[in-house]
Each structure stands twice: as structure tokens, then as C-alpha cells.
Amino acid sequence: MRRKTALVMGLAVLAGFTSAQESLGVRLMGRCSAATDAHGVVVVGDYAYVADGYGGLRVISVADRAHPVEVGRCDTPGYAEDVALNGDYACVADFDQGLRVISVADPAHPVEIGYYDTPATAFGVAVNGYHVYVADFNGGLRIISVADPTNPIEVGHYDTQPYARGVALSGDYVYVANSFDGLRVISVADPTNPTEVSHFQTPDDAWGVAIVSEYAYVSASDAGLRVVSVADPANPVEVGYCDTPGSATAVALGGDSAYVADWGCGLRVISVAAPTDPVEVGYYVVPLYQARDVTVSGDHIYLAVSAGGLQIFESYVPGVGEGRQHTAGSSPPTPAFARGVLHLPASSVGHETSSVLLDISGRKVLGLKAGANDVRALASGVYFVRIEPSAASREPLATTKVVVAR
Description:
By secondary structure, the protein is mostly beta strands. The protein has one helix and 36 strands.
């Protein structure tokens, strides 16, 4: 992390004393301060599992998201950095104490049942079946079998050098966020013999990575969110990016949005409806605290905040009912992406309806007509086409999201 991080952290501290938290399109629903040094989080069902630094693994009930409450805890000998779930087992990356395997069959009484001491410092962890993939900092990628969770054993490793921080899985490939060496793509078709197939150099330190479809979304510290096509894993190519005001440490995907944990600036919401033109559409500033990890479950976003605990959010669009659906027989949706020209189907605008284009705050920016609409003067971002009935009509209005790019 470079100059921007120091500046942002300074401004965040100042903001904590001079103004209230700022947000756009994101609502804080609840928080649990039991996790005093939250670094990693995963949510399964009604439970959030938090890697809480020296606090070990914390199990938090999120059945009532407005009032999350800790129900169980298992101390770990190291410093819990990350966590992944494998059925009834939580796999914790425990810094200099390697991988810890904790039974969470009874969430109120989590208990460690096995461990494997990796050679370096375990930062990130991902699970696929009986194999656990650990980003072990200068120990590279370690592949550990938990077929017998009481006796984890290493079956393979790949020296990524220099510093493996984050890890994600997709098919036969592991994607390693490898600090200032960018993104490493490693074939694990044979877990006992992992082999690197490609490398992509990010502009700044790669801290985390998430894979959805044919894209790798990399949180690249002061370079923000980078979108890399991995349609051909042997030839990763950056197709888009969106800078963030802080330092991007982690990313999670939900629907058409990427949620970024942004050190010093909280949670950032970035539309990736058009992966080649990601645009920020919302945020929630968390002053004084460091956003370390983020995950999405259902309609909610869970942010692990160092010194700020587990925080639960929901994303919304002010002034626009995005969730409303077209009724049977209504006009087809407008395109999800427009560059220069927005084409509106003729059936969308009739004698009894009118259509308008709204910005993310719900403000009308353009009246629409059937056919081609010139949107070149608009700033890139997320907008909404709203079809409004006449006063005499009883049909509900319909709203469709569209990303406009210049």
C-alpha cells in the first residue's frame, strides 16, 4: 500500500472526529462487537464465522440481522486471518500457526480437532471437497488434505514467491492474490502436482480475489478493483477497473455488484453489470476502522472490520423500486448496457405509458422515446429506465437497471 493509503487513513481518522458516517445506497442493519479484530468472514445459513485475530474463531448468529450475537468461540494459538467452511468444519488460516480445523457441528461449542503447521504464515484459505488451499505468504500455495480432519496432511505445494495473500477456486484452477507480484493462476487438476499456467501483473499489491464466470475480480490495494478475463486461464487479460478511495483488501460478488472492503474507507459497491466498465454505485464509510474482508449471503453484505467487529449491510437504490418485476404481457426489459445510445423497445412506450431515465438517486435525467435515445452526454454509471402508466391505468410501473458507459 502506497501514499494514497496513508492519506486516506489520515482523512478517515479526521472524519471520525468531525462528521457522521457517510453512505450512498447502503444501509447498516446491525453489528456485533464481540469480534474485536475481525479479519475474515464467511456466512453459512444463520451463522457467520469470523476469523478474529487473537480472538480466534467466533461464531455469530445472524438469524436476526439487526441484532447479531455471538453464540460460540474457539481460541486458536496464532492469529486468525481467514476462514472457510467445509461442511461441519471451519478451516482457519492462523498466521504462524498454520491451518486449524475446527468442528462447528454444534455452533455453540466449536472445538479444534486437527491442525497442520504450514511452513510460513497462513493468510488466506479456500476449500474444495477434501482439499484445503492455503495462501501461506512466502510459503506459497499449500494444498492440504482433510479427508481425515483430525489429521490434515499436505499433499502438494507451489512456490508462488513472493507473498501469497488470498486464494480463490474455480474448476481445476486456483487463483492466488500474490501481493506485489499480482495474480497467479495455478492448475490443480492434480492436487499433488500443482503447476502454474499464467501470471497477471496488477498495478499494485493483490490482496484478494474472487472468481465469477469468466472473470477474476482482484482487490489490488491502492489500484482498487481490477477485472481480469480468465476465459482462457493461460492468458488472463484485464478488461476493466474501478479505483476506490482507500486501499482495496477484499472483494465479494453478488448479482451484478462487486462489494469491496476498502481499508480506511469502508464498503464500496461497484456495478459489474458491464465487466469492461465497472462503476461505483454506492458506499458506506467506516471511519477509524480497517475493512479487512467481505462476503455476501442472500441479500446481505457482511463486512469484517478490524476494531469494528462484524457489520451487516444491505444495498439499495434510493428513490427507485428496483425489485419490481414486469407483469405478464408487459414490455420486454431494456438492454442492461448502453454505450452512447439507449434503445427502448417500441412496446415500452405506448399511448398509456411514458418512460423516463433516472439516476441512482431517483432523479429524472432524461425523457425517453421508443427507439434510439442519445445518452452520450450522461456520465458513466448505473441508471434506471422507469415505465410509468397514465393516471387512468392500473398497471404497476416497471423499472429496469441499465449501465451507461461513455
